[in-house]
Write a structure and sequence with these properties.
By secondary structure, the chain is mainly alpha-helical. The chain has helices spanning 2-40, 43-51, 53-74, 78-114, 124-145, 148-178, 183-215.
């Protein structure tokens, strides 16, 4: 009987993790799409990113209820409890990443509304988005596989995004100094770069949760 109860609890934990991975996959796609609509100047795609945010919000609520039900009915201990507690934090980070993607799509809409073409080819911003997607996937894999080494590699990738953000900042600053007409769009692009940098920080938070799950200790990776 005890074995059956334990198996039922394990199945519920597996279901919880699958839903977290599902939410993460949607967020990865949303990050990619938000930068793609900016690069392609695609207003329809930008609207799809904004309207699709409700799917992430619904999933967050579903997973939150799963966590609460598991705590209330199973009274988990030790690593099981940490796994559920980490799940609570992870869905909050994922929801914030989706919000930043919506902010990027809104920035694309504002740039489009001016009718002005992009003031520079987008190279580093798409690269930041690609790195951020990889960080989201690896941080969630680290959580599910309980892989601390993979979690630490996410923190190293965050340093690359910080470096790209600084580079974008310098380039846009020079453009604004050389031509004041670029200030409006450059400001929007600076915000986009900042949003991607923040998305990477949230992915690093998830990596910290993965380490906490395995070791029971909080490790600060965002420095």
């Amino acid at each position: 009987m005890a074995a059956t109860t334990r198996q039922g609890f394990q199945n519920s934990l597996d279901d919880l993790q699958q839903n977290i991975l599902r939410m993460g996959s949607i967020v990865e796609q949303t990050i990619a799409k938000s930068v793609e609509c900016l690069a392609k100047q695609d207003a329809k795609m930008a609207s799809e990113v904004i309207e699709g945010d409700v799917v992430v919000d619904d999933l967050e609520l579903l997973i939150e209820n799963q966590c609460l039900k598991l705590i209330a009915t199973q009274q988990p201990m030790a690593k099981d409890l940490r796994k559920i507690a980490a799940g609570f934090k992870i869905i909050t980070d994922l929801e914030r990443m989706a919000d930043y993607s919506v902010d990027i799509a809104r920035a694309a809409q504002r740039i489009l509304a001016t009718g002005q073409p992009l003031i520079k080819p987008l190279i580093d911003i798409p690269r930041m988005a690609e790195l951020a997607q990889v960080m989201v996937k690896q941080s969630l894999d680290a959580y599910v596989r309980e892989d601390t080494e993979l979690a630490y590699s996410v923190a190293r990738a965050d340093d690359q995004i910080d470096s790209l953000h600084n580079q974008v900042f310098r380039e846009l600053l020079i453009l604004m100094m050389e031509n004041p007409k670029t200030i409006n769009q450059a400001t929007h692009l600076l915000f986009v770069s900042r949003y991607l940098e923040r998305i990477a920080d949230h992915a690093t938070n998830i990596a910290e949760d993965a380490i906490y799950l395995v070791t029971g200790e909080r490790k600060e990776l965002n420095d």
